[in-house]
Amino acid sequence: AVAYVTGTLDDCACDVETIDRFNNKEIFPKLQKLLSSDYFRFYKVNLNNPCPFWTDHSQCGLKYCAVKPCTLGEVPEGLKSSSYKYSEAASQDIEECEKAEKLGAVNGSLSDETRQALQEWKKHDDESDRFCMLDDEDSPKSQYVDLLLNPERFTGYKGPEAWRIWNSIYEENCFKPYSVKRPLNPLASNSGLCVEKRAFFRLISGLHASINIHLSARYLLDENWFEMKWGHNVSEFQLRFDKELTEGEGPKRLRNLYFLYLIELRALAKILPYFERPAFHLYTGQHTQDNENKKLLLELLHVAKSFPLHFDETALFAGNNKEAMKLKEDFKLTFKNISRIMDCVECFKCRLWGKLQTQGLGSALKILFSERQIDAMPNTSNTNPSFQLSRQEIVSLRGRLKTSKSIKIIRFFSYSIHKTL
Ligand code: FAD
């Protein structure tokens, strides 16, 4: 096959070929099965947040940018109840507790443990641990979207609007010593960027590559009155990633995608103790399905943990000194800003998936840098104030499927191009 990317990745002890084998055989099939379940399929999102950065916002009229939200009848009952937020064994009790609270009842029938679980959940504010802005799920503007019915694919969103988003991400929010007149390669070791800032740029570039791979793989190939034909567009992929056609940039962008994958894989491995607690449930109210999903999730996380060449995140923000802490804070703030830029994306379909993917990466970073809190989790108790993931953060795991699928798609394009040579 035409090898678009090969060899060892920068700043890691891992090579592209090992990732390909591991992903395509071990991770991708398990992720795909798990993420088509109801728990991961319905995503609550506010697509109507105003853009916080500019006001000359045009309305997107492209028909492929439309998103169809769910009617309430389409969403499983368990997800609509407030207990979904807790995802814990006590969730049913908590639901009762909340009902009782709403009714103003002093409910003596609730166990102390349940009452404490609810209080600790309410008290817990992990805003400071976050790398990403989350939508307020209780806002009346937030709606459920069925992700299987609104797939990420070619939408036709391009030109100055799309460029303004990417520009504002790279030039103002990516630690990039970049100027249009004098572009610098942020990956060059003489670029003046420290390893953390280089990593940041690579993650964003990897995310961008993933979006562009997906639109090339689910391209609108033909359309008439009766049907639309979606499929792989090899020349679109080549235009974006071929070495010759992109002045050498395409393969570097694909390598950044592999780097993103490594970070996400590491986060999957590290979150295992959180999901392994007996108290944790992927709660939808359909108990057999919920148990099956938890089993699948744990299988996936165990496999992720077995990967032999994990990224070593201790190389980032090392030293625990003032400088490292300041850098970590900047990293967080900058990433939060990027998640807010997603509210400026005019195309709703692109906004939906852009939000989900930045949230997914934000959750991965939160996990990666919360080792102390995850280790401090009690094993036996239902409560866990030291570390929490909201349902929105858990569902954004779906972003990981995107990266995993993108890796698979690169192979597909490589073979297709090889066959035509
Ligand atoms: P762009 O992809 O717009 O890139 C702009 C410039 O950034 C390029 O010229 C290049 O210099 C640089 N660049 C490109 N790729 C990388 C990279 N990986 N790393 C570093 N620099 C890079 N379109 C769809 O059809 N479907 C979608 O679902 C979709 N989702 C989107 C989500 C978001 C958040 C955004 C901002 C855009 C989305 N788009 C989507 C649009 C799509 O990403 C492109 O912007 C569009 O196809 C125009 O492509 P382009 O060739 O002009 O270059």
TrEMBL record:
SUPFAM superfamilies xrefs: ERO1-like (SSF110019)
Subcellular localization, as worded in the UniProt entry: Endoplasmic reticulum membrane
GO-annotated molecular function: FAD binding; protein-disulfide reductase activity; thiol oxidase activity
Binding site for FAD: R153, T155, W166, S205, H208, R240
This protein's record includes keyword Glycoprotein: yes
GO terms for biological process, alphabetical: protein folding in endoplasmic reticulum
Disulfide bonds: C60-C65, C347-C350
Bilayer topology term: Peripheral membrane protein
Main location: endoplasmic reticulum
Cofactor(s) named in the record: FAD
InterPro entries xref list: Ero1, ERO1-like_sf
Active site: C347, C350
Cellular component, GO, one term: endoplasmic reticulum membrane
Sorted UniProt keywords: Disulfide bond, Electron transport, Endoplasmic reticulum, FAD, Flavoprotein, Glycoprotein, Membrane, Oxidoreductase, Redox-active center, Signal, Transport
Keyword Electron transport: yes
PANTHER family, A to Z: ERO1-LIKE PROTEIN ALPHA (PTHR12613:SF1), ERO1-RELATED (PTHR12613)
Family indicated by similarity: Belongs to the EROs family.
Record protein name field: ERO1-like protein alpha
Taxonomy of the source species: Eukaryota, Metazoa, Chordata, Craniata, Vertebrata
